[in-house]
Write a structure and sequence with these properties.
The complex is a heterodimer of chains A (about 260) and B (about 270).
Chain A lengths: L4 E15 L5 E15 L3 E6 L5 H9 L6 E6 L2 E2 L5 E2 L3 E4 L13 H13 L5 H10 L5 H5 L8 H13 L5 E5 L7 H18 L2 E6 L2 H7 L2 E6 L2 E7 H6 L4 H10 L8
Chain B lengths: L1 H9 L2 H23 L30 H37 L1 H16 L2 H11 L4 H28 L2 H8 L4 H37 L10 H10 L8 H5 L1 H22 L3
Helix pairs in contact in B: 1-11, 2-3, 2-11, 3-4, 3-6, 3-8, 4-6, 5-6, 6-8, 7-8, 8-9, 8-11, 9-11
The chains are: A alpha/beta (about 260), B mainly alpha (about 270).
Chain lengths: ~260, ~270
């Protein structure tokens, strides 16, 4: 692993087995021998249709699922005291209505990662900073609200705030804008870009929207049926794509974002 | 949020009436020794007295004060109701959360045994067990708890399984939360509404079952019970030929109905019925 890589995924295969008592077993091949590396500080887009294994890949990197075969390794990162440690990974989920506990206030939700990491001795100021940086201002107005009083875009901002509150090295954004209106979606994309530029957080941006991916990503990987069919810098993917699936994606998006490039 | 919501729901008229009824019976149970000079088993008065100043509801055929029995009967009903529903709540929630959270083979084994419990017809088994075990109130509590927990376990398990794969649980796990933290902070708080409703339901079931068993003569003779009172009243041949049924039979029946009604109102108010 060279110095630029943060995560390296080597020959990862994931099979979901379904065992029934009487019907025998069936299996689904979700990821088929995937190799991919995420570089430090980049925004890597993963584009694919539903069922192509994008979310499975995200869950494998997050450690929520175990790969059937292959390995996922993380590069050590150095903090300012020059100690090396494993990178901290956080996540933003697709559905802001499902991913925030409706029993907790916004303040509790955003403080939760700190609470889990440091116990009761976390710094409450960090929670305020995180909420400020995602644009939920004035913070005091939001701290004691419950998620059901917020709109979808505000909820997704809360989800981003709690992802950045522990200052992770990498955030996996699993279709963060697919359930939001276009205009709010662009705000969220700009927010991700800003986080990436200011704090140097590496993003893995999972989407089915090639326009959104070309808007923020440095590199793009295209997935289809559990395989990565195309990988390269954004411009290369747009201007000289080699796979017909990418071509069809581009064709569907053409006329909106693509003419800027 | 849900706790607040639940309390708010209790504030509609139905919930308030239900709470008032429950409060009335709880006070009755607590203040019984202060409200009557007799003890429930004290059979020293004249039998079959008509209500007067000394015996507000007269006496029964062996000379016990009926009003006293009525007061102490509320203790029995409430003790059984609260112990059974508390037992079902604890066992059912533990079993359900464990089963739903762990999943896999432990879940399968657990749910099949719950199925077996659910398959057994309740009432005949309760009758048989009550008849064979010593007639004690704690045996009745035990039987009703044993027959009740599978329902609680089923419901909490279903809810746990949906919560376990929800985004906020996944997020907590990504942040490094241990299983215990996830259960305590993300799963159990979400179960409160279900738990309260099942607490109310089990209380109703326990009150009716206890009275029914007592009516059939399977109750605890050392605890005065509304069911026992009805049994003795109906067993006395002349109860319907005189006016005695009005103060002997009716009050016990009304008490059972009212107490159950109180729980039903509270339950409906918590579910948000208008």
């Amino acid at each position: 692993m060279n110095g630029k890589e943060l995560v390296r995924i080597t020959d990862v295969t994931k099979v979901f087995k379904k065992t029934g008592f009487f019907r025998g077993s069936s299996s689904v091949l979700a990821l088929d021998n995937i190799s991919l590396s995420v570089k430090k500080g980049e925004i890597l887009g993963i584009i694919g249709e539903s069922g192509s294994g994008k979310t499975t890949l995200a869950k494998l990197i997050l450690g929520l699922l175990k790969p059937t075969s292959g390995s996922i390794s993380f590069a050590d990162v150095r903090n300012h005291e020059h100690e090396s440690r494993k990178p901290a990974v956080q996540v933003i989920f697709q559905d802001p209505y499902d991913s925030l506990s409706h029993m907790m206030t916004i303040g509790e939700i955003v403080a939760e990662p700190c609470f889990i990491k440091y116990g009761r001795s976390y710094v409450p100021e960090k929670v305020r900073q995180a909420l400020e940086s995602v644009g939920l201002i004035p913070v005091d107005e939001y701290l004691h609200k419950y998620p059901h009083t917020l709109s979808g875009g505000q909820r997704q901002r809360v989800a981003i705030a709690r992802a950045i509150v522990t200052q992770p090295d990498m955030i996996i954004a699993d279709e963060p804008i697919s359930m939001l209106d276009c205009s709010i979606g662009v705000d969220i994309l700009n927010l991700i870009l800003e986080m990436n530029e200011k704090s140097g957080i590496t993003f893995l941006f999972i989407t089915h929207d090639i326009a959104a991916a070309t808007y923020i990503c440095n590199n793009i990987a295209v997935m289809k049926a559990g395989k990565i069919v195309e990988y390269g810098p954004k411009k290369q993917i747009i201007s000289q794509c080699s796979h017909e699936y990418t071509d069809s994606l581009l064709a569907s998006a053409r006329g909106e974002v693509i003419k800027n490039y | 949020m849900h706790e607040k919501k639940l309390l708010q729901r209790l504030q509609d008229p139905k919930g308030l009436i239900g709470l008032l009824i429950l409060f009335f019976f709880i006070m009755m149970a607590f203040l019984a020794p202060m409200l009557t000079p007799y003890s429930p088993s004290d059979a020293s008065s004249q039998p079959l007295l008509v209500p007067d100043g000394e015996h507000p509801l007269g006496t029964d055929d062996v000379g016990r004060d009926i009003f006293t029995n009525l007061l102490y009967g509320s203790r029995t009903s409430l003790i059984v109701a609260f112990s059974v529903s508390f037992g079902v709540l604890v066992i059912g929630t533990l079993a359900g959360v464990f089963s739903g959270y762990v999943g896999g083979n432990p879940d399968r084994i657990m749910m099949r045994s719950v199925d077996i419990f659910l398959m057994v017809p309740d009432l005949p088994l309760i009758l048989i067990l009550a008849a064979y075990l010593r007639p004690s109130i704690w045996n009745i509590v035990f039987i009703l708890t044993i027959m009740g927990w599978p329902v609680g376990a089923r419901i909490t398990r279903a809810q746990t399984r949906t919560l376990r794969v929800s985004g906020h649980v996944d997020f907590a796990r990504v942040s490094g939360a241990k299983d215990w933290y996830v259960i305590r902070k993300h799963i159990v708080p979400d179960l409160y509404p279900i738990m309260i409703t099942s607490f109310v339901m089990q209380s109703i079931r326990a009150i009716l079952s206890e009275s029914g068993l007592a009516f059939l003569g399977l109750g605890d003779p050392s605890y005065p019970s509304w069911g026992t009172m009805i049994k003795y009243a109906i067993g006395y041949p002349l109860v319907f030929f005189t006016d005695a049924w009005m103060w002997w039979l009716l009050p016990a029946g009304i008490c059972i109905t009212l107490l159950v009604l109180g729980f039903v109102f509270v339950g409906q108010a918590l579910e948000g019925d208008k």
